[in-house]
Amino acid sequence: MLHAPFEVTTLKIGFERYVQTLDALVATHRPRLVILGHEPTGVYHESWARNLISRYAEHLAERATPRFVYHWVNSYQVKLNRTQTTLSFNKTDLVDLGAIGDLLLRGLGFPAHLPSDTDLLVRQEVYALRATQAEQRRVGNRIIGLFDQLIPGALLNPRRLARAHPDLDVPTPLATRPLERQLVEALITLCPNPYDILALDPPGIIALFHEHGYRCGPKTADKLLAVVQRALLPPADVAPALAALLQREFAHYQFLSTQCAAALASLEALLPHTRARHLLPIPGTSAHLLARYLTGVGNLDNVLFAGQIWKKAGMTPTLYSSGDVVIYGHMSKQGDPFFRDTLYLLGYQLALHCPYFGDAFLNAIERGKSETEATIHAAHKVNRVFFHLLQHDEPFAPPDIADYPAFCRQGEARLQRYLAQKKQSRQRQTARRRPRKQPQ
Predict the structure, then answer these.
(1) What is the mean pLDDT of residues 102-127?
(2) Are the CB atoms for 154 and 147 separated by under 8 Å?
């Protein structure tokens, strides 16, 4: 112990006190090695990390003495070390400090690395887009609920209703996937109160829509009027309040849509300046999925092989090994579910659009695997190829296929046969469903 622990603020004055104390200790004791380390948690560690890396850049690069090593330790590592060392679940800053020091002395943790400005912007856009899309889904659910209060049964799911209640007649909904339909947008914007619709005849509905630039013909007007007339509407004094709330929620939903579009446009502009520029031309990829993949991978310099990325997402199987017994179980799912979903989506999209990855998908199908299992096979291949391209900074050019255009034509034909068989299988399953009972 060369210096007693001391508290500092996260402001500039605290940082200056810390580095001045450290510099004084180095000058007094002349060590051959200095190890810096902390937990990379909270919102303040990044500013400290960037300033530490900048101040001791020469020492970290071994161009000055003494040599500096800068590591981060995971908070879960600290928790386990604290419990192992003290045999107690009590947590204090001093106990954590001892646990971090013990981990650093044992060479544990991982090298501190901060992304470049472009990589940092990509990650921040992905985080922002993820949060915005989650909020948009919540707002969308509230909109569907409010719409159903105003016009019950207008946005029902006919297939689900037919499966759950085969004895009932299934009414025609106003629209499927309603939040993507211009008819629903126009209805919420212009006349969300169903009593205002009942006061109009079909020509009046058509005129109202055309006046504000929305498309509407006689069939659409008749359909809208029929949906409102069959619904058991709320009282006339309640409907205006629900309609106003519906319009406000829909305005919020549209604002979130513009935020998502702006984030996607920013990612499309940023990715050509990252290592992912060689992945963009691959059929089936998108700027959003590639940005999600880069964010999940993190610092590529700390990855030795693609299996580490696969395990980080929790895609590896569980393992039980004892003596000569080795049992591989189901997928561990011990990782980031968002990153796991990213790999699955990449596997499915590239299996459908890029024959090189579709080959792994179709081979798994022919071996009797389900579509989900085959998608995971394709995602495993996608991860290996993407890691190689990112690591070596080279374009996608399969070296193990002599005539790649012919291979692509053959793969597209195999995929079309599989999709046709899948469609026929669904039609047979629909035909085998229990028929609706006829009224007596």
Answers:
(1) 90
(2) yes
pLDDT of 439 above 60: no
Residues comprising the chain, all counted:
440
Residue linked to tokens 């199987």:
317
CA–CA separation, 40 vs 42, rounded Å? 7
Share of the chain above pLDDT 70, in %: 98
Q: Apex CA 101: angle with CA 96 and CA 106, to 5°?
A: 130
CA count, 13 A, side-chain hemisphere, 343: 33
Q: Rounded distance, CA 148 to CA 154, Å?
A: 7
Q: pLDDT tens for residues 186-224?
A: 999 999 999 999 999 999 999 999 999 999 999 999 999
Token pair for 169: 């007649």
Assess contact for 321 and 373: CB atoms under 8 A: no
At position 84, the amino acid (one-letter code) is Q
* 70: nearest Cα among 99, 104, 98, 47: 104
Cα 235 to chain centroid distance, Å, stands at 42
- Identify the three-state secondary structure at position 322: strand
The DSSP H or E segment spanning 329 is strand 325-331
Question: What count of other Cβ atoms lies within 10 Å of the Cβ of residue 264?
Answer: 16
Token digits for 350?
A: 């590239």
- Please name the helix (run of DSSP H) or strand (run of DSSP E) that holds residue 35, with its range, or none: strand 33-38
